[in-house]
Design a protein that fits this description.
A hairpin with a 6-residue loop joins β11 and β12. The protein is of the alpha+beta class and 260 residues long. It has one domain: Gamma Fibrinogen, chain A, domain 1 (Gamma Fibrinogen, Chain A, domain 1). The strands form three sheets. Strands 1, 2, 3, 4, 5, 6, 7, 10 and 13 form a nine-stranded antiparallel sheet that branches. The chain is built from four helices and 13 strands. One of its GO terms (cellular component) is extracellular space.
């Protein structure tokens, strides 16, 4: 079933923040609008926050929540509680509506940028912290030129540490969008993350610089979503309308890595 691009997330909970809590350590508070950093009431103070969106009650609406990965900081994230059972943590959203600049530095991609209420990248540091808590899966939702969605699921997803170059690990593909992440010699599984100021691809020049975005480039790509116009070879080439990347724990027992 197609998902409309303009998903209306609930703004009832966790949309207004208490300055005291911000001071206590929401590490990615820079991804909030200035208006949301003023006191507008209280939030639901808890002694322990979920480690990701899968820890929320299934009755919780989609919206903005505070999570705390194991041994990690407080983070504000967008939770999708409707797609395939809910419990998804949104790590990327690109609707092309606010002209977000995806050509950003290594440090900017590390700590995240954009706004959690709109287009954003959660941050490689935080994606790593979340995916090191256990076995995770990923769903890439891509909108074609008619604004109709398709998806690419991988039953394993992890991002290694900064020391390892935020290397990507993917499992087996299923879905409706096609397996553009592992397309011939351009496969992006096991690739390090690249930005214009840190080139870690296998191409002769700098893919991130050439294509104005940070990604797990290989030689260079057949899928890239962190650019002004998302690209997914098996679905829409140069005219995709947008993308969302969702992750959550894989509760199926022990999926095996993808075989080449």
């Amino acid at each position: 079933m197609a998902v409309r691009m303009c998903v209306r997330f609930s703004t009832v909970i966790f949309l207004s923040f208490n300055i005291g809590l911000l001071a206590a350590g929401i590490e990615n508070s820079h991804m909030l609008n200035e208006a949301d950093r003023i006191v507008r009431g209280t939030i639901n103070h808890q002694t322990k926050y979920p480690k990701d969106c899968s820890g929320l009650s299934r009755l919780s609406p989609s919206g903005f929540y505070i999570i705390q990965p194991e041994n990690g900081p407080y983070l504000i994230v967008l939770c999708d509680m409707t797609t395939e059972g809910g419990g998804w943590t949104v790590i990327q959203k690109n609707t092309k509506l606010n002209e977000l600049t995806w050509k950003a530095t290594w440090t900017t991609y590390k700590f995240g940028f954009g706004n959690v209420q709109g287009d954003h990248w959660l941050g490689n540091k935080y994606i790593h912290q979340i995916t090191q808590q256990g076995l995770y899966r990923v769903r890439f939702i891509v909108y074609n030129r008619h604004n109709v969605s398709s998806f690419a699921d991988y039953n394993m997803f992890s991002v290694n540490s900064e020391t390892e170059g935020y290397r990507l690990s993917l499992g087996t593909y299923s879905g409706t969008a096609g397996d553009s992440m592992n397309y011939d010699r351009y496969e992006q599984d096991n690739m390090k993350f690249s930005t214009f100021d840190r080139d870690q691809d296998r191409y002769g020049s700098n893919c991130a610089h050439s294509y104005q975005g940070g990604w797990w480039f290989n030689n260079c790509y057949r899928a890239v979503l962190n650019v002004r116009i998302p690209y997914w070879q098996t679905l829409c080439c140069g005219n995709c309308k947008g993308s969302i990347i969702l992750i959550k724990p894989n509760t199926d027992c022990c999926p095996v890595p993808r075989t080449v």
